[in-house]
Structures are given as structure tokens and as C-alpha cells.
Amino acid sequence: MDGFYTVEKTVFSFDDSAHISSVYGSAATGAIVVPGDGTNNILTITMAGPDNGTYVLDGGAPQFFTGCTSFTFNASDGDDQLILNQSASLIGSDCDFTYNGQGQATTPNGDRLSFVGGSPNTVMHSFTNANDGSVTIDPDGGSTTNAGVVIYTGLEPVSDNMDAANRQFDFTGGTETITLMDAAGANNTIDSTLGESVTFANPTTSLTINAGSGAATITINSVDAAFAASLTINGDAGTNTVSFTGTVTCSALTVDVSDSISNTSSANVSVTNNASLTGGTITLGTVAGDVFNFGSFTFSSAGAVSIAEDSATTLAGASTAGSLALTAAGAIDDGTTADVSVTGAASLTATASTITLGNDAGNDTNFGSISLSGTTLSVSEDSAATFDTVSVTTLTYTAAGPIDDGTTADVSVTGAASL
Question: How does pLDDT run across 243-281, given as a tens digit for each residue?
């Protein structure tokens, strides 16, 4: 009596086939197929292990299955639903599931797929088109060979409230619009013009969006207020853009796209730790009404980078840009190990505060030319320095080469200057 099987609200404990048969009659085994009947069918599957459990069709008697090699639900013309209930994280590679929604009476929200309960390490949603895709459930975060797969066709929405540590969404790589938004309760919804709509519970560790090789427009509208995981957005090989349009709070942020990263006036983005930003151009925090705060951030772009932060700014890691406009509502610094390389003009503004860059042995700091605005400024550059516009209270500037002001620069230091 060392196993258990959950059937709706009743728990049976057993570990031998004779007892199973006495409760349910003959247990289904091998390749299991359940057909719909053209009405609004609801099939509920409760897993007890990687190849066994019970299923209930339309509230009928529970049917036990064991030794499952595959399980297929062929729905029909009604608004059908497959519910993987309570222990979905126990789905393993022994028994993969297929749900064919086929026809439906209502559009949208006709044929539905719901995951209820379970605590897998990683859940990966992969999209084939607007109605077909698959869900891979990795119970322990190890090799995906131990994971179970649910393949679906012809669906409308997917609901996933498993308590997953990590969530990953892999899109088609076509020309599509991907939108992430807050949903009711401690949930979020992700949708695409080429992918199924999925409403999912907050992950505890990470959320990753992989746009694929196409030209995707990725809109981060909002996340649930209780969302506290890291957020990663990968453009992969495609020409993709990312725009923040609402309230987003996360522990860490990574954006890597080949085109633009931007925001609208309603964006309110708060990152507890580091934000790593890679794009063709990066323009964040520069629209009236927006709010951006990072624990620290790193940028990488061959083009223009323009970032305005509503608090102090700390640069981390290796940052590169074709040009840079950086504004902070507090001090600007680069810690002890950050590197900053700007091939063109750099403009740094610390509103009524200090700028400290390049002064530690671990820093490597280089600008094509530099404009500075703030109070006490201390900058050490690992190359020659060219001033554009400087307006500060005190200035200490060290360069590993000549310091000049070109032909049009303006330099104003109301206090002491040391060059």
C-alpha cells in the first residue's frame, strides 16, 4: 500500500493490479484513445505516476489506466475540454498525451486545455500555429528525456496553473505579434497572432520568451503584481522589437533582440537586480510619464542607446554603444568591475548628483567624446578624452591620452577642476 491515486475528491491507496481491478474493473493499458461524442465533452485525467492514473469523461465513473504508452483524446464538434488534474507534474516520458480539439461550437474559447495543480521544475510551451502546439513538462529540471509531452491541435485557450519554477514559451519564428499581460488572480496571459493564448500562474524562478527566427513585435504590456521571477526575452535570429507599455516588476531582466527596445508613456518598469539590454537601438525611460528603475544595468548596441532612470544608476558588466545618452535622477557610477565603451558621443547627466566612472582597477572606460552634467564628477578614461559640453560643480578627469575640447565644446566648472 505504498502508492496513491486521486479520483476527484476521493483518495484510494493501492499497489497491486488485483486491487485496482476490484475498484475499477479492467484497467486500460498501452495506447489509450478516448473519443468525443459531438456534445460539449469534458475529459479529466488525474495522474498518479508517469504511466498510470484515472480519467473521467463527462462526470461518469472513473476509469483506471496503467502501463500507458500514449493517451489520445479525440474531441468532436462541441466545445470540449481536457483537464490534466492535480498531479500534472507526474506526467513523464512513459505516456505522452495528444488532444485533438477538432470542431467547436463557439469561437473563441471553444475547445480548451487546462493544467490544474502539480509542481514541475520547468514547463515549456511550444507553438506551431494559432491553434496547434505542445507543452513539455519537466518534473525535475534535469534531462528533457524524463519529461512528459502534451500535444494539442485545434484549440482555443490553454490554462496552466501548475506551480512551476521555470516557464518557457517558444514561438513559431514567423512574422507575429507577441503580447504578455496581467490576468485575473496570480496569473499572466501570453498570446500571439501565430500562437495559442496561454494563461499561466506566476513562475517562482524564471519566465523566458523565445521569439524565434521571424520578425516578431513583442509587447510587454504588464505582469501580475505578485510576479517576482526573472524575465528573459530572446529575439533569437529574427528581426524583433520589444516595447514595454505597462507595469512590470521582476527580479532580473534580460532582453536580446536585433532591432529596437523601447517603451510608451504608460510603462512602469522596476527590476530588483540587473537588467541586461541588447538591441539594435535602446530607448528606455525617455517618454514623459514613464518610470524606470534598475538595480543595475548593462547595455549592448552598435547603434544609439538612450536610457533615463528615475533613481540612481549603477552600470554593471561590459556595456557597449555606438552613442550613449544616460540620465539618472541620482548618482551615476560603474561599481568596481564595469566596462563602458562608446564609439561615438556619450552624454551623462546626473540630476543634482555625482558621476563616478572608471576609477577602479577593474574598470575599462572609453568614449568617442563626452558631455557631462552634475555636481561632483570624477571620471577616468582609458584613452584620449574629447569634451563636448561640460557643466559641473567640481571636475576630476583623468585620461590615458590627450584631453581636448575640439572646436565647439563648452566647459563650465563652478568649483575646482583637475585634469
Answer: 999 999 999 999 999 999 999 999 999 999 999 999 999
285: left (phi over 0), alpha (psi -120 to 50) or beta: left
Q: Which residues contact 149 (CB under 8 A, 6 or more apart)?
A: 93, 96, 97, 134, 135, 136, 137
Asked if the model's pLDDT at residue 102 lies above 70, the reply is yes
Rounded Cα gap, residues 14 and 96, in angstroms: 24
Q: Is the model's pLDDT at 26 over the cut of 70? A: no
Residue 155: all three cell numbers together: 484549440
Residue 204 one-letter amino acid: T
Q: Is the dihedral of CA 350, 269, 276, 322 positive or negative?
A: negative
pLDDT band at 86 (very low <50, low <70, confident <90, very high): low
CB 397, CB 379: distance < 8 Å: yes
Q: What is the predicted pLDDT for the residue at 323?
A: 98
The pLDDT score that the predictor gives to residue 240 is 93
Amino acid at 71: F
Give, as one character, the DSSP assignment of residue 414: S
**What's the pLDDT at 237?**
79
Asked if 2 contacts 45 with a C-beta cutoff of 8 angstroms, the reply is no
Determine the Cα–Cα distance for residues 119 and 313; give it in Å rounded to an integer: 37
Cell of 78: 462541441
Biggest distance spanned by C-alpha atoms of the chain: 95
Q: What is the dihedral of CA 284, 286, 289, 291, to 10 degrees?
A: 40
Identity at 309, one-letter amino acid code: E
pTM: 0.91
pLDDT at 13 (0 to 100): 35
- Tell me the C-alpha distance between 413 and 382, whole Å: 22
Instruction: Classify residue 89 by its DSSP letter.
Output: G
The answer to whether 201 touches 164, Cβ cutoff 8 Å, is yes
From CA 66, how far away is CA 53, in angstroms rounded? 7
Give the pLDDT of residue 105. 57
Please check whether residue 212 is in contact with residue 170, taking contact to mean a CB–CB distance below 8 angstroms: yes
- 2-20: pLDDT as tens digits: 333 333 333 333 333 333 3
